[in-house]
Amino acid sequence: MGRLVTTVRAAAALLLLFFTTTAIILPSSIAAATTQTQESTAINNDSDESENTYDIPTFQSSNEEKKASDYANYFSAYADLYHQKIMLTDHHRMQAYYNAIMSNRNVFKDKVVMDVGSGSGILAVWAAQAGAKRVYAVEYTDMAKHARQVVQANGLQDVVTVIQGAVEDVKIPKEDWETFGLKVEDGDGEEQCSSDKSCSNNNNNNSKVVDIIISEWMGYFLLRESMLDSVIRARELFLKPTTGILLPSHATMLIAPISNSQHHHSVLKEYTDGMDDWHTYLGNVKERYGVDMSILEDEFEKEQREYYLLSSHWVQLDEYDETVLDRPVVVKTLDMKSCTLEDARGVDSTKFAFDIASVDEEEGEEEEEISGFAGWFTVDFQSSADEVGKDYGMKMMNPVHFTSSPEIGVTHWGQMAFYFPSPIKVPSGGGVKINGSMEMKRAKQNARLYNVHFNYTVGDNGDEVEAVYQIP
Length: 472
Known about the structure:
Layout: H1 7-18, H2 28-46, H3 64-73, H4 81-88, H5 91-102, H6 105-108, E1 112-116, H7 122-129, E2 134-139, H8 143-153, E3 160-164, H9 174-179, E4 184-185, E5 191-192, E6 212-214, H10 228-238, E7 245-247, E8 250-258, H11 261-289, H12 297-309, E9 313-315, H13 320-323, E10 329-335, E11 346-357, E12 368-381, H14 389-392, E13 400-403, E14 415-426, E15 431-442, E16 450-458, E17 464-471
């Protein structure tokens, strides 16, 4: 997203700078061990689940320790202007939201808008500039203080109010009912109770006064960071159920096989170099200090494997036609008007079938390699497609489409690469078929992170490979 440009992203960028280009192939014994460990990981992730295993801690009001941990691990980074700047300088991101708002001023005019996860407040400012009569900019972190400054500096303090806190705890100010003529809908989508006292009691039904919820909630591979939960909860609490709209209105997740050999080989080399350094260390500590540390080798190798081989990698793929080897497969779609908290928990097992044809190689060139899979997302800003909204909802006359695909160029989301333990060669004049399925679940240890589970076979008679990757 937006929502969390953490040090992980910075670390990913640094890794891209420091990785070398030396090509290696991971030994088959390590590849086999990788698969075995991944199978064990998959079993552990699915065991001993409880009803609240995948809840976002911020919303568990009874567990202050988890809430504090969630703030430290997730929200706190958003209080830094440095992280906000990374998002604000993402031209493709900014242009999509700007066009969605400013090219549809008729939708925003005289409407009540809620910006969920407002950050610096720029979406709220645009909504006000587009003619909204009241904008609630909800921001959990101390960035809310800066948002207020931005709002005031742009002379919009009479329209935009910045509310610091979790959206689940927001209360519509009582004075706004009369000042801004707030209204809720009756069962037929008709507005009623402007300044009626019975409408201003902030219960679950009578707080639904918002016409438009706008939010930049998307994380790596769409769902990472689990901010979608907050948008869904805001929708259930505040959005007019019949005529209200959400922007973006729809989202899609896609995967495709990729060739990204230089970075793939450098990741594998980092892993093997790390193990070589460990073995050198074992010899030195035994020779110099008389201590045998080899008992720790399995744990060290496990750490290295999980970091380099069993984690997704942030990449910015170049030259779409050269790096994306087959047509992407849609693994999940979301209609923001009707999606549920359960939908936000991940991706159900979805089948894919890729057929990668070889390319004509110049004499002396190496065979093309399949590095792994990559995932990205699209979002749309358009009229509602659900059965109610398509008849009653506001019409987006100028819909906007955004993608984090390699074809668009650089975005701060990039793509998530899930590298194979060893590259797959595409024989000259032939091709490779990869058939399998993908599933994505929240990590048990941290509900804002996800594990992606692939099962696939290479070729008609290949062995089944099971691989579980963490999205850090």
